[in-house]
What we know:
about 250 residues, alpha/beta, 9 helices, about 40% helix, globular
Amino acid sequence: MKIISIRDIHIGKDIPKIIVPLMGKNIDQLLLEIKTIKQVNPDIVEWRADMLEEVENIEAVKKTLSSIRAELYPTPLLFTFRSHREGGNKKITEAYYKQLLEEVVQTNEIDLIDVELFSSNVHEIVESAMANDVFIIMSNHDFEKTPVKEEIIQRLRRMQELGAHIPKIAVMPKSPTDVLTLLDATYTMNSLYADRPIITMSMASTGVISRVAGQVFGSAATFGSGIEASAPGQIPASELRRMLEILHTN
Length: 250
């Protein structure tokens, strides 16, 4: 299993890493949020840029990114624009999505970038990220349902084929059986097909167990909320760390 190392954070080794999202709408909100987040010592911080009011202005995005990076360094920084179709805050064109991600990977101010599996420009964005030595978390989110086990595995394997350093999938359970499907798919993917870290989760309250059981089934990281959750079912990061440590030491 290949481990992804960013400074002293090693994704895919030992206890699952905690990723905490930044959800502020402007720089003032983001800087306040960072002060709170720093207190829980996240392993990685995710900037959900689709929440930014000025996200359609690339220069404003880059200026905000510089401020975030300066405040957070050396904590690894993940840049995410979550598309509207996958639960994000703003509708933009595929062309702008491509331009935004390609310009951001050229700033030298991020460590990881989220690239959606079903983006029409996925190949070009992956190439650009790799050319700029930015790690790729390739993602897919299903807020309606939990696909069958084989489909979950197929999507994760497709992400590997496309060059993702870390494949990621999040699904919505309708029942506890759906959570078992996600965990079973995670274990099978991790033990039979994955040659790199993967991240999986079942959302909402029904799926909360999947956010703490990663070490058992093979998910290498988990998302914990700071001031605001970025997806249903996120546990506050400070509580999440205690839960992971209990599982790790017993």
